[in-house]
Amino acid sequence: xxxxxxWTLSASLGAMLLAFPLLSHAEDITLLxxxxxxxxxxxxxxxxxxxxxxxxHNATNRVDVALDGTFEFRHVQPGDYVLRIVDQSGQTVAxxxxxxxxxxxxxxxxxxxGRRPSAPGTVSLTQLRHPPAKKAVQAxxxxxxxxxxGKYDQAVEQLQKAIQISPExxxxxxxxxxxxxxxxxxxxxxxxxxxxxxxxxxxxxxLCNLAFAQFQLGRFDExxxxxxxxxxxxxxxxxxxxxxxAILANDPATRQEAIQHLELAAQKFQSARINLExxxxxx
Length: 283
Hints:
Number of domains: 1
CATH superfamily: Tetratricopeptide repeat domain
Shape: globular
CATH architecture: Alpha Horseshoe
Mean pLDDT: 77
CATH class: Mainly Alpha
Radius of gyration: 19 Å
Number of helices: 10
Distance between the termini: 17 Å
Low-confidence stretches: 1-8, 10-26, 112-128
Structural class: alpha+beta
Number of strands: 7
Helix content: 40-55%
Strand content: 15-25%
Order of helices and strands: EEEEEEEHHHHHHHHHH
């Protein structure tokens, strides 16, 4: 591939995002109601909901979920967010991308809640044999608070503490990778994303984060392979479309496929729109 650095890909995260759409500067929304819907009832106890702005990655609100699955956010600025539901161990059990423009109700679906109340999707044998210790979970929670306030060095220290206590804590590795990406320490981030995958098994989020770190390191073939693997698990995962589109855009032979991926990613991400404009202008 040639001219690889012509195409832009903004840095991620929160264990997750790969672009920086602009947020509106309108007045705060006083109250947003939320509701979790699940395939079966009764597993909402101990869950937390957070709203993470796509532009800054810092969770501005973290609230308890009531036993009936309801939650409320106050004083939310209009813009694009990741709405995340987290369990007591720090695992993300569900997430949606939401665009908030006015007061209303946020809806999120918790799949297979009755069968797996504590984890999203398949839980690896390693995770079942080595659940995180209470002190590791406490360090994980402390790291989240530091990250929310932009204290990434201290978040890293707490996540490393969590891993020292519970070496098979996959979510701690995944979130440590996120903090290192925020600090542009992509080699460490790639290793930590790979370790999260090794412990918990492949999932779209960690495969995409690994692909993003590899992209930043110039390991484009590996990055493309992992972005494709992410999409095989979830063909609608827009971050993976963004990463793969940015890589394919560098080669004239794959630019048509790049456009297809970037058109999907452009539904959410400004950097995808920028790359699409460059591709169309270069024709």
